Amino acid sequence: MRMALIAGNWKMNGSLALVEEFGRAFADVSLPVNVEVALMVPFPFLEAAGRTFTANSVTVGAQTLSDRPSGAFTGEVSAAMLRECDTRLVLVGHSERRTLFGEDGAAVLARVKAALAEGLTPLLCVGETLEEREAERTEAVVLGQLEAVFDNLDEAQRVRLVVAYEPVWAIGTGHTATPNQAQSVHAAIRRRLAHYDQALADGMRLLYGGSMKADNAAELLAQPDIDGGLVGGASLKVDDFLAICQSAG
Asked: Domains of the chain (ranges plus CATH)?
C-alpha cells in the first residue's frame, strides 16, 4: 500500500513564529501512522524548520532549487545547500515556477536531476491551465510535462520521485476539481507510468494540488489514485492543515 503524503506549500508566506506554532501543534497530536506529513517552507526558515519538525516526524521540504551545484549564480540555492539544512523534499516544476519564472521542461528536468544527485526527493508538479482544459487538452499537457522528465530518467531514478497534479485553474482561485475530475487525471498519470513499468505505476505516490482544504480533503483522498495532497493556503493554518492530515489516515 502506498503511504499517503500531505505536503504543505507555504509559498512566499509564513514566519519563524509560524514555524514554532506548527512545531507546538504537531508535538501535541498523534498523526496517522500511514501518513507522511511535509512542509515546504521558504529558504530562510529551513534551518529552524529542521530543528523544529524533525522531532515531530514532519518532513522538511524546499520550494525550488538551482540546477547548478555551485558557482556565481547570485540568489540561487543548490541541492547540496538544501541537504545541509536537513531538507529531504523539494518541489520542482510548480506552476508558478513555470509561468512566473519561465521554467520549461528542460529546466524542470535539470532541477529534478540536481535534486536526485544529492539524495533529495523531487516532488514533480504537473498541471493544465483553464484554457488548456477548456480546449480538452488536459491529458496531453499533463502527460507531456510528465514525459519530459520521466523519458529522460532511468528506472532507478524514476522510483524516487513523487508526482503532484495541480490544475492551474484551481490554484488560489477557490475553485477545486471535483473528485471525479481529479481522479480521472490521476488515473491517466498512473496509466502512463505503467508504460515505463507496472511496479513504478503501482508504487508512485500521486498527490492532488488544487485548493485542497479541510472540508474537501476526505472526499478527494478517498479516490483510488489520489495518495495525498499538495496543500497551499490551508497549510498556513494549523487547525486546517492538521484536519487535512488526519483525514488522510
From this structure: 4-247 (3.20.20.70)
